[in-house]
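Quick illustration for those who missed Monday's session on complexes.
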Amino acid sequence: MLSCQEKLCGLWFVDKFSTTCGERSQTMDNLRLQHKFLEIIKSQVSSANFRAWFTNTHIESLEENKIILAIPSAFVKETLNLRHLKLIEDVLFQITGKKLKVEFTIKNGQLPKPNGDGEEDIFQPIRTHTTSFLNPKYTLENFVVGLSNNVAYAAAQAVIQNPGLSYNPLFLYGGTGVGKTHLMLAIGNTLLKSKPNLKIIYCPSETFMNDYVNAIQTHKMGDLRAKYRACDMLLVDDIQFFSGREGTQQEFFHTFNELQSKNSQMVLTSDNPPNEIAKLEDRLKSRFQGGLMVDIQPPDFDTRVAILKARCMEKGESLEEDALKLLASSLDSNIRELEGKLMQIMQSLKLKNLEATYENIIPFLNHQPKKKGQNPKQLLSTISDFFNLNLKDLVGPRRHKELVLPRHVAMYLLSEEFDMTVESIGKLLGGRDHTTVMHGRDKIKKMITTDREVQRIMIEVKSRLS
Ligand code: ADP
Ligand code: MG
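Prediction with adenosine-5'-diphosphate bound:
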């Protein structure tokens, strides 16, 4: 006899959605869809978020291209819309294979039970033996490779070519927002493409900890082991959170050994290498170090530019090249923040009906030009006036001797006063190479301390600027 839970997850699966739903009553189907939906969401958000925003969400109705979710308050609606809509859409797509438009309706009331007899709580986590949700948006194809992550990328490819056999575990570590989760999921998604039946489990380390605690409380350690030790691939994200969790570490140690002995690939991520994770058992450290450890560095300037370009392409946005570079230079380490900033700027510019140009994005950046009401082009005009030059000559290709000092002054001041990158300065000065800009900037930096004439020029130009 199948248990209710097994019926729920066994009978109802992704590709069966469209074929079986006609035979069943709409309400039953919605409940199963809802069940799967919440199960996946639960594996994707923190338990606090799940409790706050999802436990009282249920599927009100499902039409051809639209789904209506009933939620308890306007506040929940706003939060889901603002913070979780993309996830909701992705999960629904994963389950139904359809891009559904999501609408919300506010309802206060009891949630229906799955089969009317109230035997099972629909929101209890289910121990499935199926692949857990891998967000399909993270792929190798849309992972931009640069100096900061090319070793990790190569390691991911090696794992894909030979899962379980080349590097096990693959341990990816690095700061926040550098692409660890992306690369880890890309490995899973790539393998699933060629082998859709692989049992791959992706779990944030918090999910493993919660499952472990639940299993102890409900005396279901067998279920926990069946779930984690029977998979072909285990992806554990942010394993640094195992720190100090002795029981979890012990359970994971045995899971690890079992998976390794049957060549099931493991990919682990962390903010630090294993030996720097506090309160992590030595035997786990040495297991983790026994595979391949690769770090992902904060992305360098060129990689940041490439990532921004890729995002613009993906979203159908266009941003002028020098504006893109200015943005790439304004944040340096966290790609998530860089992407967030890009989207925020594009939205605001659209609202104001402004083009995405260098000057228009300046007001959105953290490092604002220090002189209010000034912009880099005004600085160039001021310098041209001061030296009695034509602006065209200052930024033009001519290499006359009298143009050298004004250009160097411009390079220095654009860098100091406007926090521009050498790349953007080069661009503004008529497409000059960034090494030329660095040379000019540094030359003035030195001369300022020793050369009276340069000191006078600086004082004069700055005072004209203000
Ligand atoms: P981490 O897990 O290291 O904190 P994530 O993998 O969540 O970082 O990445 C943060 C965001 O940046 C995600 O939207 C991800 O798609 C994007 N991202 C990170 N690295 C890259 C990359 N090399 N190419 C494209 N997008 C990236
Ligand atoms: Mg991550």
